[in-house]
């Protein structure tokens, strides 16, 4: 092969690889943007919606790359008189290199397999997942819900029931929910006065969760529901796990406490009790984030509900699902060997002071303050 031809081919390979790497990185961000806007459109720099096809986002990036490789080789072939045979070989080489890279990126970890694309293809076939999230107005509310919404945006066929312990729904929450493109309900369910006034531990999130159960009884016919507090941290693999729930499933929860864990104990492959820092005579000493229930199972138990009893909410609810015994628990997360839910807590903060309108009344700070609760 002539020296100049060899140099030309090396240059082509280099250019193509640079284009390929560029699209690999920007493409993934592009996918996420499209999902944030409802899955059917992406936004350009000015915030205008750009329509994109129905095709799987991951495949689309792949196709752009393939087309670019073909075009680049073709351009060099024309400009430098590369023989069609050599061009074809070069194209083939570059494509197989690109495919190998895609495959290894996808197989790198369990989580990377759960790309928006993988799930998009499953959207039509999966039953709904109802996520019941109690929330209440405080400075941390919007950041917590932002974090959580971005997790749920990676999960297919989620219906998010966001229920505020409030008399009036917080408008910043409504706006946030609308932006996600998720199916959602924004409901209110204030804690009854008598519990609010009580000294000591209060039954937090109970009115909200019972409102969620009421909504499910009235509107849902299949699928699974899960109580997901707004301040916890969820691995997206959790949602694929809880889809498997037939009646009631359980799985480990990571706690950021000395005890470290709340989980069913598995011995010789079968259920052998519960590990939790606070057993307190509970039949089901589990964390709120550690179980999921099938909608049908709930509907067959019209009296199931959560008691207003601080510390005994999980136990009381699971007992209200009778007939249901610990030996019937479906063990998820690889027989309870993986932590996919974390009971995290955010430091509580004082509400921010009102803005000094004399100083800042005609600045951007007015708009920003409206986004803080
Ligand atoms: C733990 C449990 O995980 C909760 O499920 C349980 O309700 C609570 O203890 C309890 O026993 O009272 P923890 O992290 O200590 O949760 O409580 P928070 O995160 O403060 O509250 C649980 C949920 O209820 C959150 O989603 C929160 O937004 C909501 N909440 C809290 C309200 O709706 N109203 C409140 O006044 C406080
Ligand atoms: Mn919490």
Number of strands: 14
Spatial strand sequence of the major β-sheet: 5-4-3-6-12-8-13
Q: What's the CATH architecture name of the largest domain?
A: Alpha-Beta Complex
Number of domains: 2
Give Rg in angstroms: 26 Å
Biggest sheet descriptor: 7 strands, mixed
Per the CATH scheme, the topology name of the largest domain is Spore Coat Polysaccharide Biosynthesis Protein SpsA, Chain A
Identify the CATH class of the largest domain.
Alpha Beta
Q: What class do helices, strands and sheet pairing give?
A: alpha/beta
Bound molecules: uridine-5'-diphosphate-glucuronic acid, manganese (II) ion
Order of helices and strands: HEEHHHHEHEHEHHEEHEEEEEHHEHEHH
Core attributes:
single chain; alpha/beta; Spore Coat Polysaccharide Biosynthesis Protein SpsA, Chain A; 44% helix; binds uridine-5'-diphosphate-glucuronic acid; binds manganese (II) ion
Explain the layout of strands and helices.
Blueprint: H1 3-36, E1 41-43, E2 49-51, H2 57-80, H3 84-107, H4 110-113, H5 116-122, E3 129-135, H6 141-152, E4 158-164, H7 171-180, E5 183-188, H8 193-196, H9 206-219, E6 224-227, E7 233-234, H10 236-242, E8 248-250, E9 253-255, E10 261-267, E11 270-275, E12 291-294, H11 295-299, H12 313-319, E13 330-331, H13 333-336, E14 341-343, H14 357-360, H15 365-369
This protein binds uridine-5'-diphosphate-glucuronic acid and manganese (II) ion (MN).
Residues 134-136, 165, 191, 203-205, 208, 229-231, 287-288, 310-311, 313, 345 line the site of uridine-5'-diphosphate-glucuronic acid.
């Amino acid at each position: 092969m002539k020296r100049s031809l060899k140099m030309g081919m090396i240059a082509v390979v280099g250019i193509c690889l640079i284009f390929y790497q560029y699209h690999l990185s920007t493409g993934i961000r592009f996918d996420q943007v499209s999902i944030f806007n409802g899955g059917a459109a992406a936004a350009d720099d000015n915030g205008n919606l750009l329509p994109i096809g129905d095709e799987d986002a991951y495949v689309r990036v792949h196709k752009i790359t393939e087309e670019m490789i073909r075009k680049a080789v073709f351009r060099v072939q024309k400009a430098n008189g590369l023989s069609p045979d050599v061009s074809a070989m070069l194209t083939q080489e570059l494509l197989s290199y690109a495919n190998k890279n895609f495959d290894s990126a996808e197989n790198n970890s369990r989580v990377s397999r759960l790309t928006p694309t993988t799930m998009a293809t499953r959207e039509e076939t999966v039953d709904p997942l109802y996520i019941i999230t109690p929330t209440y107005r405080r400075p941390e509310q919007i950041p917590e819900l932002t974090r959580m919404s971005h997790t749920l945006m990676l999960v297919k066929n989620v219906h998010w029931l966001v229920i505020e312990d409030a008399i009036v729904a917080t408008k910043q929450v409504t706006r946030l929910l609308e932006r996600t493109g998720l199916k959602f309900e924004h409901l209110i369910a204030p804690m009854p006065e008598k519990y609010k006034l009580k000294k000591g531990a209060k039954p937090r999130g109970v009115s909200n969760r019972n409102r969620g159960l009421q909504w499910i009884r009235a509107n849902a016919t299949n699928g699974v529901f899960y109580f997901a507090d707004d301040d916890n941290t969820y691995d997206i693999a959790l949602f694929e796990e809880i889809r498997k729930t037939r009646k009631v499933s359980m799985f480990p929860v990571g706690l950021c406490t000395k005890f470290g864990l709340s989980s069913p104990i598995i011995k010789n492959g079968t259920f052998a009790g519960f590990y939790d820092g606070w057993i307190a005579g509970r039949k089901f000493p589990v964390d709120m984030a550690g179980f999921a229930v099938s909608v049908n199972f709930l509907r067959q138990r019209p009296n199931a509900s959560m008691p207003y009893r601080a510390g005994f909410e999980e136990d009381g609810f699971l007992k209200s699902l009778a007939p249901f015994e610990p030996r019937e628990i479906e063990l998820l997360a690889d027989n309870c060997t993986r932590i996919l839910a974390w009971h995290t807590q955010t430091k509580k903060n004082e509400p921010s002071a009102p803005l000094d309108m004399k100083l800042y009344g005609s600045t951007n700070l007015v708009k920003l303050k409206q986004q803080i609760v």
